[in-house]
Amino acid sequence: MEREMYRDKLRRALDANTLSTIEPILERMPGGFFIYHADGNEELLYLNSAVLRIFGCQTDEEFRELTGFTFRGMVHPDDIEEIENSIRNQIASSIYDFDYVEYRIVQKDGSIRWIADYGHFLHTEAYGDIFYVFIDDNTERMKHYMTEQVQRQNLLESALSQAQTANIARNTFLQNMSHDIRTPLNVIIGYTELAKKHKMEQNKIENYLNQICAASEQLLSIVKASLEVTRIESGKVYLVENIVALDDLLADIECSIRPQVKAKAIHFAIDRSQVRHNVIYIDDIRMKEILFQLLDNALKYTQQGGLVRLTVIETEAKMSRYAQFVFTVEDNGRGIAQEFRKDLFQPFERERNTTKSGVLGTGLGLSVVKNLVELMDGSIEVESNVGQGSRFRIRLLLKVPEELSEENPILVDSDSSINLEGKRILLVEDNEINREIAQELLMDEGYLVETANDGSVAVEMIKNASSFYYSLVLMDIQMPVMDGYTATREIRALQDEKLARIPIIALSANAFAEDYKRSIEAGMDAHVPKPIQMEELQETIRHVLGRNKQA
Questions:
Q1: pTM of the model
Q2: CA distance linking residue 412 with residue 542, whole number of Å
């Protein structure tokens, strides 16, 4: 009621005399103020000098020439329809509130400025329907706003681009994985079917089994590399630094590639003559993986009877207790084309695919290598010429002990003189099929094998056994009642010291570096990943038994 009385007084009071009375106040306002007819040509009734300044005019005549002395002439022609629609809608929704609009104007010199407009509709007895309006130059705020909008749009476009790139990468990944997994699976399934049909033909059966074995190893390498790439990209790969004898590390590498070297009659050599420190601090699992991938590539792309060499050089570093190590893998094989080198370390990139090159592979190995080297704060570089071979060089800054002591022991080599035949093994495995396979493989090597289907059963069997009844325990990790870590800790806590010291080797599908670390921390002597590769397992058993024999 009070507001209506006020508006009625304003309608009756607003005339020429009133405007002349309040004009001194309006002229001193920092912002623009004007009044215009709400109908007809929207002709202006009044404007203060601030409006002239905003439009860049010195006189009323300049302003009249610029705008036609109408509200429509003040607003940029591209904005007027939208502005007037907005004003009408706002008036319809509330007769008490100011309507607010933003629009562009054209100044006398042609410059474009943004205006913030607060207006209100009013019916007066003297002038009829009018709008009185307060305006201010809003250009700087609009520039800031538009900059933010552009930045936001750029971010959205960048996010969309990244999402599209990720989607393409994911589809490429799935397509490659589908092809590369199905290829060895086809070999395994196909030769298995052939083996069933030719049971009595020994020569064919032997060939089929060799093909199945090769395809299985290829499938395993694909799974390992794919998991490694996924973990690296998700940031879930961590280094586990150990005290390592370089000779042992190199010996393990030589052992792992020996079948390929022998199959292709490759002249393979390891040169570590320029190494002063045999003991280094390094994540040996990751380092073995790096060197194996590089050597595996070198062997694949080197012709029968070719040359592959691994060289390790140690140079001084400017940091106490650190040294620079350079690992170089070189071959005299096919070499790499110059144009392909920029994509050499990209996942799934191969210069020629399996069909064209005749060489099995996924294109993941070098991507894994580069990521692991960078994780170790190292660098990798490549030199290559087509038809002359390739040279991959890795540089790592590694910590070395000041001197060898009991705290920094050199690992002992596996003792090949130990006779493993007749050794009694306690095999702890909850999966019946895995247990049967492992038991048969071990018995074929001459071991006496007893089994337990859970960690808790294994602990009771060790407790009730006499000293040295079991030569060692092969312990699975993930089991339903008591896992391998807990079982190992309980065995190590037994009162009988001889039983508590029984050698325990983890035999598990948990195959990441942190899994190795957890096994050792739980009290195990070694960690061997599944699927079982008997040559690796035999070496590990000899190594562990040899170490316990020396202890």
A1: 0.53
A2: 11
Task: Indicate the domain borders of the chain.
Answer: 2-137, 145-233, 242-399, 424-550
Positive or negative torsion for Cα 409, 414, 416, 421:
positive
d(CA 525, CA 484): 13
Q: Which fold has domain 2-137?
A: Beta-Lactamase (3.30.450)
C-alpha distances in Å from residue 327, one per residue of 373, 378, 392: 11, 11, 8
229 burial via Cβ count (<10 Å: 0-12, 13-18, 19+): buried
pLDDT tens for the 551 residues of the chain, in order: 444 444 454 444 455 566 677 778 888 888 999 999 988 889 998 899 999 999 999 999 999 999 999 999 999 999 999 988 888 888 787 777 888 999 999 999 999 999 999 998 888 887 888 898 999 998 888 888 888 888 888 888 887 777 776 666 566 666 666 666 777 788 888 888 888 888 888 888 888 888 888 788 778 777 777 777 677 666 667 777 888 999 989 988 898 888 889 989 999 999 999 999 999 999 888 899 899 989 988 998 899 999 999 999 999 887 778 899 999 999 998 888 877 677 677 665 544 544 444 445 555 678 888 888 988 899 999 998 888 899 999 999 998 886 644 444 444 445 556 778 889 999 999 999 999 999 999 999 999 999 999 999 999 999 999 988 999 999 999 999 999 999 999 999 999 999 999 999 999 887 777 788 889 889 999 888 888 888 888 888 988 888 776 55
Protein fold of 424-550? Rossmann fold (3.40.50)
Distance CA 74, CA 62 (A): 13
Does domain 145-233 match CATH 3.30.300.20? Answer: no
Task: Please provide the distance, in angstroms rounded to a whole number, between the alpha carbons at the two ends of the chain.
Answer: 102
CB 245 within 8 A of CB 411: yes
Among 1.25.60.10, 2.130.10.10, 3.30.565.10, 1.10.10.60, name the CATH number for the domain at 242-399. Answer: 3.30.565.10
Take residue 227 and report the two structure tokens written for it: 């998991």
Q: Rounded distance, CA 172 to CA 280, Å? A: 40
**Cα–Cα distances in angstroms (integers) from residue 53 to residues 140, 142, 428, in the given order:** 16, 19, 91
